[in-house]
Amino acid sequence: MIDIKTIAERDRSSVLHPFTQLKDFASGKLGDPTIVTGGKGISIRDAEGRTYIDGFAGLYCVNIGYGRTEVAEAIARQAYQLAYYHTYAAHTTEELAKLSHRLVQMAPGNASKVFYGLSGSDANETQAKLVWYYNNLRGQPKKKKIISRERGYHGCSVISGSMTGMSFYHDQMDLPFPGILHTGTPHHYWGAEHGESEEAFSRRRAAELEELIVREGAETVGAFIAEPVLGTGGITPPPSGYWREIQAVLRRYDVLLIADEVICGFGRTGADFGSTLYGMEPDLVTVAKGLTSGYMPLSAAIVGEKVYSVMEGAADRVGAFSHGYTYSGHPIAAAAANAVLDIVEKEQLSNRARVVGAHFQKRLKERFAQLEIAGEVRGVGLLGAIEFVADRHTKRRFDAQLKVGARISKAARERGLIARAMPHGDILGFAPPLVVSEGEIDEIVELAYQATRQVI
Ligand code: PLP
């Protein structure tokens, strides 16, 4: 029998929780920690026996759902056989070779090699180093700046946290790091001028990017990093024409494209990758989350042929590629990823996310259409968001003190639905496991609607 009180006390006295108001937690104002004890399908349960539909798949990661015994068995098999060996100096395991081969086959762009980390943040840190390394090796040592977008999210380590384009991730942390720049976010609802079409808005955003590159000097700009669909910054699909226009600018100035597929990868948008859906041809691709559905920590920086060929070409001159972690390519994580990707393929989860996702988008729009405070209902595949405003016609925002998004999220939770209050604005976000059914989608939308009505 779990002693709930002891667990809560131990936690409160000793865990430094990410993204938590420390004083409110310490004083008990936030209540006790939720002790999560189990999960099955699209739901989790806590120590008090409550169950919640997880409308956010953990943190957009548990795509195959909770409690998949196939993955648990693959993890156990590998742990019994060989729990750990490193991958330095050309060591490998069967599971790692298999995973790498399949990632190179399936990744967008002209993928050549896969480097492994443990989180999206460290994989993006690796991407930055690869951009610097590549440009040093090809004799362009000034071409090092990396441009990301306002409201983009790329993690919270030093470089990935700098790429993240929201100031509250930088404040008091001495970020952004020099040489990481930001350009405008492609959100038509907020950014477009009166009467401006999505295509015209996309051209304007691309022109702004071009101006920034020219202002800084193209010989100093190494890469542009972006999520195909902006995630934590508000779950915002790109406006029409955006990726075509942006890629034309990047090619013109020889700037690499890093596609951060940490959320979009492995089916979330209804395609295998967000890049596939939007016609992106990235030079470097970052994956994590859906790669193992959260069953083990694993990320990858997938390196395209253009970058890799320069690295290999310079090897006689510069020696070994001196970057790697003790746990790069961990065999248990690789076994988990293979078992997860087997499920993704067998159950055609990308296709399922496209079909069930279309139902989700339709239901969300229909249900919230009459609500005056639903300023924009948006999404793609099984990613969705409702942005709440005080006045739909003038787009006047709610007073931040009212914490409308957070209160609706809390009300939803009390009704047994986890839907995330996004950190930027009054936005309720959804990213359910890709195994969700249409009936469960209806339940999620209805619970979110009832929660909204309760608050406003
Ligand atoms: N990139 C994107 C697009 C993400 O959404 C996230 C996390 O949410 C990250 C990177 C960072 O991943 P991690 O939290 O595993 O470091």
TrEMBL record:
CDD domains: OAT_like. GO terms for molecular function: pyridoxal phosphate binding; transaminase activity. The keyword Nucleus does not apply. Pfam families: Aminotran_3. The keyword Repressor does not apply. Keywords: Aminotransferase, Plasmid, Pyridoxal phosphate, Transferase. Coiled coil: none annotated. SUPFAM superfamilies: PLP-dependent transferases (SSF53383). InterPro entries: Aminotrans_3, Aminotrans_3_PPA_site, PyrdxlP-dep_Trfase, PyrdxlP-dep_Trfase_major, PyrdxlP-dep_Trfase_small. This is Aspartate aminotransferase family protein. It comes from Bradyrhizobium guangdongense. The gene is bioA.
